[in-house]
Write a sequence for this structure.
């Protein structure tokens, strides 16, 4: 065995744009879609809300994700803000942590007209898929906000920056 002085997973030629994105950071959301017969979810931190007569959420999704397939089929989804307590769930839906029985078995979900909602999520939006386009290695979705519930103050919001989860200050 050889001991190295550098990080074993460090990229010898890091992508500057990827590093920039990591420094931007943002709130962590869980996007879910579907019903009891077919449902999917994905942890998303690349998103923004655009206000106007029809407010929308813009998000960058993995083009190979099950969520994108179910969102396209159903046309509806739920965008919920995650809290610090949800960080393991965020990892499960991101596919970076084990989820025996699938990520939906890791927490309680409630059926809504828009898709499954994390039962503990107090702030969430029901959205309708309004458009999509390829952007870089992602699919940018435009999701019209059809319903919003604002719960308790998000003093313990889950944030993601530089590859790690953080608590809101």
């Amino acid at each position: 065995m050889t001991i190295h002085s550098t990080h074993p997973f460090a990229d010898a030629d890091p992508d500057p744009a990827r590093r920039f994105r990591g420094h931007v950071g943002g709130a962590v959301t869980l996007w879910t879609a579907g019903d009891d017969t077919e449902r999917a979810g994905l942890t998303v931190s690349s998103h923004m809300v655009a206000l106007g007569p029809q407010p929308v959420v813009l998000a960058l999704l993995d083009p190979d994700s099950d969520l994108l397939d179910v969102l396209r089929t159903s046309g509806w989804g739920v965008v919920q803000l995650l809290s610090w307590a949800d960080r393991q769930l965020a990892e499960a839906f991101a596919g970076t942590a084990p989820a025996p029985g699938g990520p939906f078995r890791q927490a309680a979900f409630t059926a809504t007209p828009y898709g499954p909602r994390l039962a503990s999520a107090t702030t969430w939006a029901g959205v309708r898929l309004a458009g999509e386009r390829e952007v870089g290695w992602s699919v940018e979705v435009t999701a019209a906000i059809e319903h919003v519930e604002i719960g308790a103050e998000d003093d313990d919001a889950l944030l993601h920056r530089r590859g790690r989860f953080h608590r809101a200050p």
